[in-house]
Design goal:
Distance between the termini: 31 Å
Helix content: 10-25%
Mean pLDDT: 93
Low-confidence stretches: none
Order of helices and strands: EEEHEHEEEEEH
Largest sheet: 5 strands, antiparallel
CATH class of the largest domain: Alpha Beta
Length: about 160
Amino acid sequence: MDKKSLVTKGCMVKINYVMKTCFLDGTVKELSPDTLEFIFGVERQAPALEAALEAARVGDRFSVHIPAEEIYGAYDPDLIREIPKEGLIKQRIKEGQFYRQIKSGHLISFKVLEVKENTLLVDFNKPTAGISVTMDLEVLGIRKAGKKETDMAREAQHRKEIGCA
């Protein structure tokens, strides 16, 4: 691994990182250190991570903030709605809990925020919406990826994009 090599498209990049998940209520959960190896520019990562890694060198250390929009999706306050209780399974309705039910062949899922006499105040955001991440990372290795590796990575990325991974 050449310390002069720069991260560029088509390079196999190996990083060590500690991920800190930042929840909407302000709490932060730090995960154990982990290692990630991927072909830069082929196996897509969050745009903020890709931008931070571009032109990095082996041994570089830095912190990257990945906004919710790039990782889990933004929290949308317009997805808080008041809905009728009618047609819902009463035993499943619990304040602060997620409610799930198949109706007409579709999954209905929401968090119950408040139970009222005839209605519910619910949140249709995904449970992870609004969660951002900070990664403290170090570039461990950079090398040219082989043709077979690149072809396999492209195929895997394509499967992810169409929901088959």
